[in-house]
């Protein structure tokens, strides 16, 4: 089936693309929404400008739609992007990386209904620790690009999601109720390599900014 994948460059949307491809779907395009609002209800923001590099090494066309990120109004911009994907690439379905957010899932499904597209959420309500383990098992190279909850701080930026990472977030889940996969908005991620990539993306420069328990990592890629 020809499909589009809502794509932020983070672990969930990239893993969703991997699942879509593994399930014999034809990923006709990636759809990225770039929000001016860092606190968007719908869209991932850290390192979002680097998705073009990811699309390039995946050899998949990329649709970019900008939005001011105003609650509910930003959905009109998502509609524009999905409409373009249907018109330009003839997609029959949308895949999303939604895991826990009913807000995101319900609104995307409503838009898909408008355009008579199927909507698939392969990660929906997947066990969070199992999700992280599956990413490692399938050779995903992922780094943390944003942290937004105590006790996470700037020292977590740039860390890879590996077995040690899983061990630590599991402990934080028990002690502080941190969602181990960041589904409560605790952290954001960026994929540097996975089986869909033709080569690994290398970081040539990075910048850290923020304060207290809200920190972001901006990266430049080779």
| Amount of beta strand | 25-35%
Judging by the overall fold, what is the CATH architecture of the largest domain? 3-Layer(aba) Sandwich
Arithmetic mean of pLDDT: 94
Low-confidence stretches: none
Helix content: 25-40%
CATH superfamily of the largest domain: HUPs
What is the H-and-E element order?
EHEHEHEHEHEHEEE
**Count of the domains:** 2
**End-to-end C-alpha gap:** 33 Å
Class derived from helix and strand content = alpha/beta
Tertiary shape: globular
Major beta sheet, strand line-up: 3-2-1-4-5
What is the overall number of helices? Answer: 6
Please give the CATH class of the largest domain: Alpha Beta
Descriptive account of the structure:
Helix content is 33%, strand content 26%. It has 222 residues and is an alpha/beta fold. The chain has 2 domains: 2-120, HUPs (Rossmann fold); 143-221, putative n-type atp pyrophosphatase, domain 2 (Alpha-Beta Complex), CATH 3.90.1490.10. Strands 3-2-1-4-5 form a 5-stranded parallel sheet, sandwiched between helices. A 4-stranded antiparallel sheet has the order 7-6-9-8, with no helix packed on it. Helix 2 links the parallel strand 2 and strand 3 (62-67). Helix 3 crosses helix 4 (102-114). It starts with a strand and ends with a strand.
Keywords summarizing the entry:
putative n-type atp pyrophosphatase, domain 2, five-stranded parallel beta sheet, four-stranded antiparallel beta sheet, 26% strand
Q: How are the elements arranged and paired?
A:
Elements lengths: L1 E5 L4 H12 L3 E10 L15 H8 L3 E6 L6 H16 L3 E3 L6 H13 L3 E3 L7 H10 L3 E7 L15 H14 L10 E7 L9 E9 L2 E8 L1
Parallel strand pairs: 1-2, 1-4, 2-3, 4-5
Antiparallel strand pairs: 6-7, 6-9, 8-9
Helix pairs in contact: 3-4
